[in-house]
Fold:
Amino acid sequence: MENIKKLFKKDKILLIYRCGSYAFGTRNENSDEDYVVVLENFSGLNHYEVGKKEYFIFGLDEWVEKQEFSDDYDEYFEIFNDEVLAFPNNIIYQDESIKELVDKFKNEFKDKYKIWIKKVVKYFDSIIKLNTINKQMYHLIRIKHIIENYEKFGSFSLDLSKEVIEWIDTFKKAENKKAFKNTIVEALVYLKNKGGND
Structure:
C-alpha cells in the first residue's frame, strides 16, 4: 500500500486487490505478486514492476470498461475478470465510494459468464493457431474446471481441485510446454462448446 501511495501521490486510490495466481489459488514459490490498482483521476492503464511485485494500474473509467466486457476492450485483460469472484478476500484497500461498484461486478459475473467464455476462447484460440503454448495457457484448464463446477453446483467459485492445482503446477514448471498441447486444446474445445462459439 505504501509503495503504491509513493508512486501515485497526486491520485486518489479507490481500490487495490491481489490478482493473478494469488486470486486464482495457483501461486507457487516462483510466482510474482500481482496487484490491480484503480485510481480516481488516472487516465488509461499502466504497468509497473517493482522486484517481484507487478502493479496493473487502471483509471476508474478504464477499469469499469474492462469489468463490463466492452466490445472495444483488449481480451487480454478481460479473460482475468473472474478475479472478482475472490472479492473480498483479495482486497487490500477499498475506498467507500467504489464499494457499490465492486459488489455489483461480483454479483453480476454469473450473468456475464458466457461473454467471458467468448473472450477467453477468442484470445487463446488466436495463440494456439500460431502453434504456441505459453505459460498463460494453464488458465484454460482452470476456467474449464470453474465452468464444470458451475454446471454441477449452480454457483461460481475459484476453488480448484487438488488434481487441477497439481496439473497447473507441473505445467508452469515444465520446460517443454508443447507436451501439454492436447490437454490444452481439449479445454479450449470444451469452452467453445459451452458458448465460446456462439
Residues 17 and 88 are 9 Å apart (CA to CA). The chain has eight helices and five strands.
